[in-house]
Amino acid sequence: KVAGIIVQQPLPECIPLRAVIDAIDPRKDIDGIHPLNAGLLALGYEGYLPATAHASVELLKRSGIELAGKDAVVVGRSNIVGKPIANMMVQKGPGANSTVTVVHTRTKDLAAHCKRADILIVAAGVPGLVKPEWIKEGACVIDVGVNRVGTKISEKTGKKIAILSGDVDFDAAKEIAGYITPVPGGVGPMTITMLMRNTLNSLKFKLGIA
Ligand code: NAD
């Protein structure tokens, strides 16, 4: 009766993530975290794509941003965001063909890499990590980071809610970037859309109508 399964990470430390991932039927792996789907992506074959990574690349494509030949820098190398984004953008084919650099905590000069990016995708989980002066004039910035930086009272409900911020200082960066996604309201809603798409495809496959 189940069409799709996602694993909400991080798991409690007592639960081994790898064992949980291995237990997912790859045909129901709608967040593309099973090694089979990760391998299919790396090889450029069709499979389930991780929703956030897919959302980030889909936002570029649907905004008419040319990816071919562009210098793309991905900040973050997680299995569910950074690595799959890099794998998608480096593929040979339409809506890809970028020259991709993945940077991370051990990268020597983060600023220099970011500065030469035509397309800068930031998924580190560190508020304000990417400074406005690290952004190339006219670059396209996708801010994947979602950080809780405080709390406020919701005007709608009167309840205490989290104040969210991305990994990029949006207000300063928007004056330099050609395109930039806000947090909240950028990658997040598109992630839900990609997850729904995978769920629908999984259901169609299950019903034999795919
Ligand atoms: P993660 O912690 O697994 O990975 C973060 C990566 O960033 C690591 O590879 C690390 O090397 C790199 N990094 C961290 N600090 C850095 C620094 N100072 N300099 C350079 N690199 C650094 O996180 P994740 O699961 O990949 O998520 C990343 C961010 O995206 C988080 O803020 C998370 O909340 C957000 N996220 C958003 C969505 C969405 O739907 N919008 C979905 C998933 C994750």
What does this structure look like?
There is one protein chain. This protein is of the alpha/beta class and 210 residues long. It has helices at 17-22, 35-43, 51-62, 82-90, 110-115, 170-173, 187-207; strands at residues 71-75, 99-103, 119-122, 140-143, 147-153, 160-165, 179-180. It has a 5-stranded parallel sheet. Strand 1 (71-75), helix 4 and strand 2 (99-103) form a beta-alpha-beta unit. It is globular and about 50 Å long. It binds nicotinamide-adenine-dinucleotide. Nicotinamide-adenine-dinucleotide (NAD) is lined by residues 52, 75-78, 80-82, 104-105, 110, 123-126, 129, 144-147, 187-188, 191.
Overall structural class, as computed from helix and strand content, comes to: alpha/beta
Put simply, the count of helices is 7
* DSSP helix fraction: 25-40%
Q: Please state how the strands of the largest beta sheet are arranged side by side.
A: 2-1-3-4-7
Largest sheet: 5 strands, parallel
Bound molecules: nicotinamide-adenine-dinucleotide
The backbone outline, from C-alpha atoms, is: globular
Radius of gyration: 18 Å
The parts where pLDDT drops under 50 for at least 5 residues are none
Q: Averaging pLDDT over every residue, what do you get?
A: 97
How much of the sequence lies in strands comes to: 15-25%
First and last CA, distance: 17 Å
Number of strands: 7
- The topology string of helices and strands comes to HHHEHEHEEEEHEH
Quaternary organisation:
single chain
